[in-house]
Amino acid sequence: MSDSPDDGTAEDSPSANTAESSPPDGPTPDSAEDDQPGVAAEAGLDESVVGVPRELASTVRLQWIVGSTIGALVAGAVLGAIAYVVGTRTELLAAGVEPAARIGVAAFALFALFGVVRAVLLYRSWEYVVRADSLFLSRGVFTRVRTVVPYVRVQHIDTTRSPLERVLGLSTLVVYTAGSRGADVTIPGLTPDRASTLQERLERLTTESEEEDAV
User: Are 110 and 102 in contact (CB under 8 A)?
Assistant: First the structure.
Protein backbone atom coordinates (compact mmCIF):
# COMPACT_ATOMS: atom_id res chain seq x y z
CA MET A 1 0.00 0.00 0.00
CA SER A 2 1.14 3.43 -0.86
CA ASP A 3 1.05 6.26 1.58
CA SER A 4 -1.50 8.94 0.76
CA PRO A 5 -0.18 12.50 0.52
CA ASP A 6 -0.74 14.74 3.49
CA ASP A 7 -3.40 17.32 2.56
CA GLY A 8 -2.24 19.68 5.32
CA THR A 9 1.25 20.33 4.00
CA ALA A 10 2.32 23.88 3.01
CA GLU A 11 2.92 22.75 -0.58
CA ASP A 12 -0.78 22.04 -1.12
CA SER A 13 -1.96 25.25 0.56
CA PRO A 14 -0.28 28.24 -1.00
CA SER A 15 -2.40 30.62 1.06
CA ALA A 16 -0.55 29.48 4.13
CA ASN A 17 2.76 30.24 2.42
CA THR A 18 2.01 33.75 1.14
CA ALA A 19 0.91 36.74 3.19
CA GLU A 20 -1.47 39.32 1.76
CA SER A 21 0.12 42.79 1.63
CA SER A 22 -1.98 45.78 2.56
CA PRO A 23 -1.15 49.41 1.72
CA PRO A 24 0.40 51.40 4.56
CA ASP A 25 -1.97 53.45 6.65
CA GLY A 26 0.07 56.66 6.45
CA PRO A 27 1.36 58.55 3.39
CA THR A 28 4.61 57.43 1.83
CA PRO A 29 7.60 59.81 1.84
CA ASP A 30 7.21 60.43 -1.89
CA SER A 31 3.56 61.29 -1.61
CA ALA A 32 4.26 63.51 1.37
CA GLU A 33 6.79 65.47 -0.66
CA ASP A 34 4.31 65.78 -3.53
CA ASP A 35 1.68 67.13 -1.15
CA GLN A 36 3.97 69.91 0.07
CA PRO A 37 3.23 73.29 -1.56
CA GLY A 38 5.85 74.80 -3.84
CA VAL A 39 7.81 77.94 -3.16
CA ALA A 40 5.62 79.94 -5.52
CA ALA A 41 2.44 78.78 -3.79
CA GLU A 42 3.86 79.55 -0.36
CA ALA A 43 4.84 83.00 -1.65
CA GLY A 44 1.24 83.59 -2.73
CA LEU A 45 1.99 83.45 -6.47
CA ASP A 46 0.16 81.68 -9.25
CA GLU A 47 2.09 78.55 -10.26
CA SER A 48 1.35 79.31 -13.92
CA VAL A 49 3.72 82.33 -13.91
CA VAL A 50 6.68 80.23 -12.74
CA GLY A 51 8.94 78.67 -15.35
CA VAL A 52 7.45 80.55 -18.33
CA PRO A 53 10.00 82.22 -20.69
CA ARG A 54 9.15 85.88 -21.27
CA GLU A 55 10.38 88.45 -23.77
CA LEU A 56 11.11 92.14 -23.45
CA ALA A 57 8.83 94.88 -24.69
CA SER A 58 9.35 95.49 -28.41
CA THR A 59 9.94 99.21 -27.75
CA VAL A 60 13.32 98.37 -26.27
CA ARG A 61 14.64 97.96 -29.81
CA LEU A 62 14.02 101.68 -30.40
CA GLN A 63 15.81 102.49 -27.17
CA TRP A 64 18.87 100.52 -28.24
CA ILE A 65 18.78 101.99 -31.76
CA VAL A 66 18.64 105.55 -30.41
CA GLY A 67 21.54 104.83 -28.08
CA SER A 68 23.65 103.27 -30.83
CA THR A 69 22.80 106.13 -33.21
CA ILE A 70 24.09 108.67 -30.71
CA GLY A 71 27.26 106.63 -30.34
CA ALA A 72 27.59 106.39 -34.13
CA LEU A 73 27.21 110.17 -34.41
CA VAL A 74 29.99 110.74 -31.90
CA ALA A 75 32.24 108.17 -33.62
CA GLY A 76 31.62 109.73 -37.03
CA ALA A 77 32.44 113.20 -35.75
CA VAL A 78 35.66 112.00 -34.11
CA LEU A 79 36.79 110.08 -37.19
CA GLY A 80 35.96 113.04 -39.42
CA ALA A 81 38.03 115.33 -37.23
CA ILE A 82 40.93 112.88 -37.27
CA ALA A 83 40.71 112.60 -41.06
CA TYR A 84 40.79 116.39 -41.36
CA VAL A 85 43.89 116.69 -39.18
CA VAL A 86 45.67 113.84 -40.97
CA GLY A 87 44.80 115.27 -44.40
CA THR A 88 46.02 118.72 -43.40
CA ARG A 89 49.35 117.66 -41.89
CA THR A 90 50.21 114.66 -44.05
CA GLU A 91 49.62 113.32 -47.52
CA LEU A 92 47.95 110.11 -46.39
CA LEU A 93 44.45 111.56 -46.89
CA ALA A 94 43.06 114.32 -49.07
CA ALA A 95 43.16 117.69 -47.37
CA GLY A 96 40.06 119.76 -46.79
CA VAL A 97 36.74 119.69 -45.01
CA GLU A 98 34.82 117.83 -47.69
CA PRO A 99 36.99 114.67 -47.75
CA ALA A 100 36.98 114.57 -43.95
CA ALA A 101 33.20 115.01 -43.89
CA ARG A 102 32.76 112.09 -46.29
CA ILE A 103 34.81 109.88 -44.02
CA GLY A 104 32.81 111.00 -40.98
CA VAL A 105 29.47 110.38 -42.70
CA ALA A 106 30.59 106.95 -43.92
CA ALA A 107 31.71 106.00 -40.42
CA PHE A 108 28.42 107.24 -38.96
CA ALA A 109 26.37 105.22 -41.46
CA LEU A 110 28.41 102.08 -40.81
CA PHE A 111 28.13 102.31 -37.02
CA ALA A 112 24.43 103.21 -37.18
CA LEU A 113 23.66 100.22 -39.41
CA PHE A 114 25.57 97.95 -37.08
CA GLY A 115 23.58 99.34 -34.14
CA VAL A 116 20.25 98.66 -35.85
CA VAL A 117 21.17 95.06 -36.71
CA ARG A 118 22.52 94.47 -33.22
CA ALA A 119 19.35 95.85 -31.60
CA VAL A 120 17.13 93.53 -33.63
CA LEU A 121 19.24 90.45 -32.94
CA LEU A 122 19.67 91.29 -29.27
CA TYR A 123 15.93 91.69 -28.84
CA ARG A 124 15.34 88.25 -30.35
CA SER A 125 17.93 86.67 -28.05
CA TRP A 126 16.64 88.20 -24.80
CA GLU A 127 14.43 86.18 -22.47
CA TYR A 128 14.01 85.77 -18.75
CA VAL A 129 12.37 83.04 -16.68
CA VAL A 130 11.07 83.33 -13.12
CA ARG A 131 11.84 79.91 -11.66
CA ALA A 132 10.78 78.52 -8.31
CA ASP A 133 14.29 78.87 -6.85
CA SER A 134 16.11 81.28 -9.16
CA LEU A 135 15.89 83.92 -11.87
CA PHE A 136 17.20 82.81 -15.26
CA LEU A 137 18.42 85.24 -17.95
CA SER A 138 19.52 84.46 -21.49
CA ARG A 139 20.78 87.03 -24.01
CA GLY A 140 23.59 87.84 -26.42
CA VAL A 141 24.24 88.34 -30.14
CA PHE A 142 27.74 87.03 -30.79
CA THR A 143 28.19 85.35 -27.40
CA ARG A 144 25.23 83.73 -25.67
CA VAL A 145 25.21 84.64 -21.97
CA ARG A 146 23.10 82.65 -19.52
CA THR A 147 22.80 83.82 -15.93
CA VAL A 148 21.17 82.04 -13.00
CA VAL A 149 20.49 84.12 -9.90
CA PRO A 150 19.42 82.06 -6.85
CA TYR A 151 16.90 83.92 -4.73
CA VAL A 152 18.92 83.24 -1.58
CA ARG A 153 21.65 85.52 -2.99
CA VAL A 154 19.34 88.43 -3.81
CA GLN A 155 19.80 91.43 -1.52
CA HIS A 156 17.25 93.86 -2.92
CA ILE A 157 15.50 94.76 -6.17
CA ASP A 158 14.97 98.21 -7.72
CA THR A 159 13.41 99.67 -10.86
CA THR A 160 15.06 102.54 -12.73
CA ARG A 161 13.95 104.79 -15.59
CA SER A 162 16.28 106.94 -17.67
CA PRO A 163 14.97 110.03 -19.50
CA LEU A 164 14.83 108.06 -22.75
CA GLU A 165 13.01 105.20 -21.04
CA ARG A 166 10.44 107.66 -19.68
CA VAL A 167 9.78 108.93 -23.19
CA LEU A 168 9.41 105.39 -24.54
CA GLY A 169 7.40 104.12 -21.57
CA LEU A 170 10.00 101.60 -20.40
CA SER A 171 11.67 100.58 -17.15
CA THR A 172 14.71 98.55 -16.11
CA LEU A 173 14.69 96.05 -13.26
CA VAL A 174 17.93 95.82 -11.28
CA VAL A 175 18.58 92.78 -9.07
CA TYR A 176 21.35 93.37 -6.53
CA THR A 177 23.02 90.17 -5.40
CA ALA A 178 25.52 89.23 -2.73
CA GLY A 179 29.02 88.60 -4.01
CA SER A 180 31.72 90.38 -5.93
CA ARG A 181 31.28 93.65 -7.78
CA GLY A 182 29.55 93.24 -11.09
CA ALA A 183 27.37 90.38 -9.87
CA ASP A 184 24.21 92.50 -10.18
CA VAL A 185 21.91 91.75 -13.10
CA THR A 186 19.46 93.94 -15.01
CA ILE A 187 16.38 93.26 -17.10
CA PRO A 188 15.76 96.15 -19.53
CA GLY A 189 12.83 96.76 -21.81
CA LEU A 190 10.01 96.28 -19.31
CA THR A 191 6.83 98.30 -19.17
CA PRO A 192 6.38 100.07 -15.80
CA ASP A 193 3.49 97.76 -14.88
CA ARG A 194 5.41 94.60 -15.72
CA ALA A 195 8.52 95.87 -13.92
CA SER A 196 6.48 96.57 -10.79
CA THR A 197 4.77 93.17 -10.95
CA LEU A 198 8.06 91.36 -11.53
CA GLN A 199 9.70 93.21 -8.67
CA GLU A 200 6.90 92.17 -6.32
CA ARG A 201 7.09 88.53 -7.42
CA LEU A 202 10.84 88.35 -7.01
CA GLU A 203 10.67 89.96 -3.58
CA ARG A 204 8.10 87.38 -2.45
CA LEU A 205 10.14 84.49 -3.82
CA THR A 206 13.29 85.88 -2.24
CA THR A 207 11.63 86.16 1.16
CA GLU A 208 10.22 82.64 0.94
CA SER A 209 13.56 81.20 -0.19
CA GLU A 210 15.35 82.87 2.72
CA GLU A 211 12.84 81.39 5.16
CA GLU A 212 13.26 77.91 3.70
CA ASP A 213 17.04 78.25 3.71
CA ALA A 214 16.98 79.23 7.39
CA VAL A 215 14.94 76.15 8.38
Answer: no
